[in-house]
Write a structure and sequence with these properties.
With about 250 residues, the protein is of the alpha+beta class. The chain is about 25% helix and about 20% strand.
Amino acid sequence: MAVITVTINDELVSGREGQSLLELVREQGIDLPTLCHLDGLEERGGCRLCMVEMAPGNRLAAACVTPAQEGMVIYTHSERLVKYRRMILELLFAERNHVCAVCVMNGRCELQYEAYTIGMDHVRYDYLTPDLPMDASHDRFVIDHNRCILCTRCVRVCDSVEGAHTWDVMGRGVNCRVITDLNQPWGTSQSCTSCGKCVQVCPTGALHAKGSTVAEMVKRHDFLQWILDGRENHQWTMRNGEPMESGR
């Protein structure tokens, strides 16, 4: 793979042709915020928190879906970008009913962390306060649409990793929300395997285990890379270097 040179925040760095700008920036130890990105999942480019400025012209681009190219000049934390990121976070808080003090993910929520990191202490926009339901029909898990930020991590992990495609997205704008099996109660889903992958990758308290109370939910995002690495290395389908027989 060819080596390329990119200028990040006025410093020359080396990268690999074809890797994303997000990956290259993080390799340099620069904390570029994201909410829809998760290592091991295909990129969506939806949250726009990882936007960078590209010179000349200061064009904005989502770093997670923009491939690094030779000679690029980018900036990651300009005053303009910080302003836009704060605006995005405030709009996310205003769109749903995020009340951190009574959330199962309080203190471990990625949305809460990004707001704290950027110094967001208030929301300038009118709260929409939609009347959104909770679905506790599943034996083990709960979905609270009030906490959902529509990152679609649950949709992507269920589709590309578990292979069930239980989750999908319905509606547009403020009426958009994730659904199971063509908008059926989660507990009646015939495709759900109850694996819990969707719960573990969710960045907020939208998906959580039953019985969790305030600040009790702990999620393990690193399990996803462990699963993918195991599959790539045939860790569970090989024995002494040979494929295991069916059923063993």
